[in-house]
Amino acid sequence: MNPETRRTLVAWIVIVACSVAVIVDQRGPEDDAGSEKISVRVAMRADQRVFLRMADAFAAPDADPMVKSQLSGIDRQLQPVDPERPGDAVGQAVVLARIGELDAARELVESLHASIADGRVDAEPREREAVEAAVSAIAACASPSADALSDAQAAVLVETLGEGGHALVAMARDDRDALGARSLVGAGAMLVLALIAVAAIGLGLGGLAAIGVFAVLAGLGRVRGAGPPAVGRASVHAEVFAAWMVSYFAANRGIGWAVDRIEAWGMPRPSTEAMLALTLVVDAAALAFALWWGTRRGLTWRTLRAQVGLTPPRASDVLWGLVTYSMGIVFFSVGLGIALLLSALLGEGGFGGVSHPIQGLIADGSGLAVLLSFVIAAVAAPIGEEIAFRGALYRNLRDTFGRTAPFVGALVATVAGSVLFAAIHPQGFIFIPVLGGLAVAFCISREWTGSINPAIVAHAINNAVMVALNVVLLR
Asked: Is residue 31, in this structure, part of any structural domain at all?
């Protein structure tokens, strides 16, 4: 085995090992999974918050009957309560109560209350109070009145359930002003969703046309490919990607370890804002280390930058980014269809349980936390991930498998890189076809333009839209 082959093999062993570790860590059970202790799990899941916002829009007293008919559809879309997280039942009950399914809501919270009372489920005192308050509030929803709940009960519901607590208190107390305000906010959110859907359809049609044009040009050999021919050591691109994976995930894991040690020493936990700012710093440092490693392996910075597709920025990158994003909508839709089919076949019941850690930050974090989350999602992640995946990894796979047939190399690089890209994200296995679809569009963009700049722009647009959408639905 020659030295270059050995270096490439070592790099890929590191990539595979790191990928497996990340996937297992993200898909593994939480610290309290399997425990019957409720603890702080009396809260609303992200999907429950979204359905509550939808219910607020459709449950307005003066809403059109056709609009109100949409409430029954919410009931069918609710993800079943996870038996390992019994506190989710309270959030589910709030949504059911808001859409008028009081019997189902009462059954959920009363069953949980009974399990706590007979010792089958252990709960902290504050969680017991929250469940008891929810039982009283949902019972009161059948005949609401201003004195249906005490101030103490209302406070514990708001503390544990957030917006869900506000909604439940308003329903129990028949607070028409509060319910009316919630309906207006919900209607605004649905209007934003409708506008986004219309824009997505328009862009998707443009994306179909762009995919067709690319196919024709690729068939004629008129696309730029992955950029200038590789020079220097053949293993360098795999090494750059391996260095990024190890440094990125080790650094982020190290933050968690450091915070655990701080708490173990009796010191206060750093604020969410401080943690997010630190995440930005370590992410930038991980990317810088990976690129530095590439320059230490025989390539100049200028050559490395050109080979990973990081070309000098141009105004046309924005236009190409929009084209890339429009193609991404098409592949995203195809991936969504595949995921729905898999969900039905596997009995997963839809995407109710699909979530991302950033949703909790958006739902409950401060304004600064939301801003930092936006910067991480729409600036740092697109730059770092595109340089790593569509830059170094794509180049390595394309060159390795495309020595005699560039099309084969591009196909292998697109499929393998897109699956890995989707798999290491925390949404869950069922969402891999969806994120993988976006990654396919980013790979096509790299092949079409010879640059990753449009993919960075498209990635940033997608993440910015997703963060904004979560702000509309969760805050």
From this structure: no
